[in-house]
Structures are given as C-alpha cells and as structure tokens.
Amino acid sequence: MAEEVRLNPAYISYSLFKNTLRGLSHNSKLPPKIDSSILSKLNGSSKAQFLSALKFLGFADSKGVPTSLGNSLAAANDDEWKSRFRTVIESKYSEQLAALQDGTPATFKASFGDTLGASLITPAARFLFAAAKDVGCDISKH
Predict the structure, then answer these.
(1) Are 29 and 75 in contact (CB under 8 A)?
(2) Residue of 58, 27, 44 lying closest to 35 (CA atoms)
(3) Residue 91 contacts by C-beta under 8 Å, 6 or more apart in sequence?
(4) Bridge partner residues of 26 (DSSP)
C-alpha cells in the first residue's frame, strides 16, 4: 500500500507566488513541467516554497506537471483570478478561513494545528491572510 504524502500549506509570500505563477504563463498556458530550472528569478528557498505551494494548491502534480486548474489561473485576468483562486482557498483552507472570519490572530494561527511545525505557521498564516484579502474573503476585525 502506497503511503500518502502530506503536503504543507503554502508558506511563500502570496505576492511572490501570484506574480511568479502568472509570469510563467505563455500563450495562456504554463510550461509542460515546472521545476527549479525555470525559476531563475527566485532564490533556492523561494523555489522550493513555490513548487511546494503549487502542489499543495493543486496547480501541479507531484512531478511538476501543471494541472488544468494551474493553467486556468496562470492565464486568468484579475477578476477571473479572484474568483477562481477564492474557490481554491475555500476548499483547501476551510477551517483556517472560518477562524480568519470570526477569530483572533491566535485562533487563526492555531487553526493550522501542530502538524505544520512552529516555524511554518506564521508564514503559512501570512500567505492565507494576504490571499484571502486579495480575493475578497471576510476577515475578522480582530
């Protein structure tokens, strides 16, 4: 029986993720494979974070081959991006979005649980906070 690989939530800068993904698009499609060799503008850790985020969000498979969702987002205009990306984060981060909408910063960070690792909780929370704000999700005043 194959062991399921657990992917960490995205913990790269949201703006870097969005700009890099959209910058890779050519003729409304991503390259046939996304790996560190085509991410020359990113440093080593940013490359790893970007590739990890692509896989977690379902934009590329485990080998870096873009999915139809990844291609549709890379080529999307601003309004389409917001609509499509909101659907993605609502499905991937339902518990965290609930905490973000009704909670405090502490409950929001706690919603990531202890499986993520203390060093990644803050960057993962920042990614989701920025993404949620960008796509128009409700955010608690706290």
Answers:
(1) yes
(2) 44
(3) none
(4) 29
